[in-house]
Request: fold
Amino acid sequence: MQNFSYYNPTRILFGQGQIAAIAGQIPAGAKVLVTYGGGSIKKNGVYDQVKAALKDHPWLEFGGIEPNPRYETLMRAVALVKSEGVDFLLAVGGGSVADGTKFIAAAARFDGAEPWDILAKHAEVKSAVPLGVVLTLPATGSESNTFAVISRESTGDKLAFGSEHCYPQFAVLDPQTTFSLPPRQVANGIVDAFVHTMEQYMTYPAEAPLQDRLAESILKTLIEVGPQTLASPQDYAARASQVWSATLALNGLIACGVPQDWATHMIGHEITAEFGLDHAQTLAVVLPGLWRNRRVEKHAKLLQYAERIWGIHDGSEEERIEKAIVATEAFFESLGVHTHLGLYGVKDAALAPQKIAARLEAHGFTKLGEHGSVMPAVVREILASRL
Ligand code: NZQ
Ligand code: ZN
Reply:
């Protein structure tokens, strides 16, 4: 096992009715800015629950944070935080609202001239406005991690940052708040959590059997409850398991002491920026292609995955690996998340290998993956196999 340092300060408030508990988590008298997206929280009753919970706090709101949150929009919230003297940010929504709010938190306290540098130049985040999250879409794990992915309309970039100052202080996970999700977002969430687990699992053996088993538990749970929660969106038990799986997939726990990949995500972010696919759709396209391309480096873990997750014992090692990759593609497709670019009807899909590799190069991401072996030429090969 590799050395690691693990600390996750996010208090999880899990279960029905937990929104009411947020008042006790926010300092008395703190002026709160409630941030949200396009309005789903006003239709499903979540906004009203937040409003009731904040009755003893001074608060104001900032809506309109888009999926793949935009820098231009978030900077308007930063101005509001400064002009109104906001003390605490409360993100109410999915990963985009949580991510956007982390950026607002960091940018409002940033002492440089251009907060975009936090993303483009890895400028240091020295402090952030404290924040909490009421999560309405189980997928990203953003409610309990340091990361945020922000898009900039003027340049077409989609870039990530992470800072310990941006850990949410608390996260409310009430599965009932997710019942109103459209099937596409539920399926996206299952795929995103599945691939987060893979980015920390599908590398090479690192004498970390506990982390492997933890990751495998998340994968098996998602394979079991994913179809159930899609078919029965109001089934509390199934949705609760999906919500908890998504949080555990990216709260830092399964990353302890193991190598990590993240090439699928880095390629995927560029696909969203270039072609507009949903985040999880990009992952379903890239992951199987990346595995086939890197199957020598990932040989031992692919075999372990085939056996432990899909119960594949027959055939040569190469055949077992291929069966496991096919089973993964079939799982994504069974959720309605397609695994080839052509199935998303994007214009100029044939140019994807060149365009995406060039984007990664322009951002300096030329040695991706656990071995740094996913170079632009490899990205082109992977995407050429996914058209
Ligand atoms: O904006 P509203 O009206 O709220 O609608 C949203 C949005 O249209 C809707 N929605 C959310 N909760 C709902 C709901 N609709 C009905 N009922 C509810 N309960 O769902 C749509 C998508 O929301 P979004 O937040 O964009 O989805 P998701 O949670 O999948 O977040 C995706 C973003 O997170 C980033 C992605 O790149 C993408 O920008 N990621 C963040 C990560 C992190 N912070 O650790 C890691 C991930 O790998 C990922 O990159
Ligand atoms: Zn993701």
Summary: The chain has a mean pLDDT of 98.
